[in-house]
Amino acid sequence: MTVGKVLWHTMLSLDGFIAGPDDDMQWVFGVDNDGGATADEVVHSIGALLVGRRTQAVEDRLQPGFYGGAYSGPFFVLRHDPPSDPPVVKGVAGRFLDADIEEAVAIARAAAEGGDVVVLGANVARQCLEAGLLDEIIVHVAPVLVGDGVRFFERRGGPPVTLEPISSIVEGDTTVLRYRVAPA
Fold first, then answer.
1. In angstroms, rounded to a whole number, what is the distance separating the alpha carbons of residues 52 and 48?
2. Phi then psi for 120, rounded to 5 degrees?
3. Which residues pair with 119 in a beta bridge?
4. What is the pLDDT of residue 1?
5. CA 149, chain centre distance (Å)
6. CA-angle at 64, arms to 58 and 70, nearest 5°
7. Which pTM was predicted?
8. How far apart are CA 119 and CA 9, in angstroms?
9. For the segment 91-129, what is each residue's pLDDT rounded down to a tens digit?
10. 165 exposed, middle or buried (CB, 10 Å; 0-12, 13-18, 19+)?
């Protein structure tokens, strides 16, 4: 059986934020990604999404769904004390997981059926990194300075995370950086 990768895929402002204050993502919508070949590649590889509660709320509130509505498969929202109703993003129902990160990734992998598990959200991605579960990071660096908000990666203490460059390409206004997470 094929086992997909666990990927963190995100857009990043040049000053290191993946969302502005109050999880604002309006700055992303004006960025030209020249057709988004990398995003299309990622969407086609997704077997399941694993997201945080803030990402789920932003996707449902501000966007036409995950990847602009291009992805409507299984998704899981990692959340402690979840409500009884399932999470919904633009009419697509997912599942809340009140579990540790290892169990959450295992559940998402099973649902992915050999496809990739794509992680959305800084907190969930940090947990995956710290648990040694993340295989690659794909980040679209936008020519925008946000100034404040949700940092790309932030933690107190711990050793640096070593990344191995895979590729760097320009798509429209963005520079797409792809890294393999080096074993600890």
1. 14
2. -125, 125
3. 8, 50
4. 57
5. 16
6. 115
7. 0.91
8. 7
9. 788 999 999 999 999 999 999 999 999 999 999 999 999
10. exposed
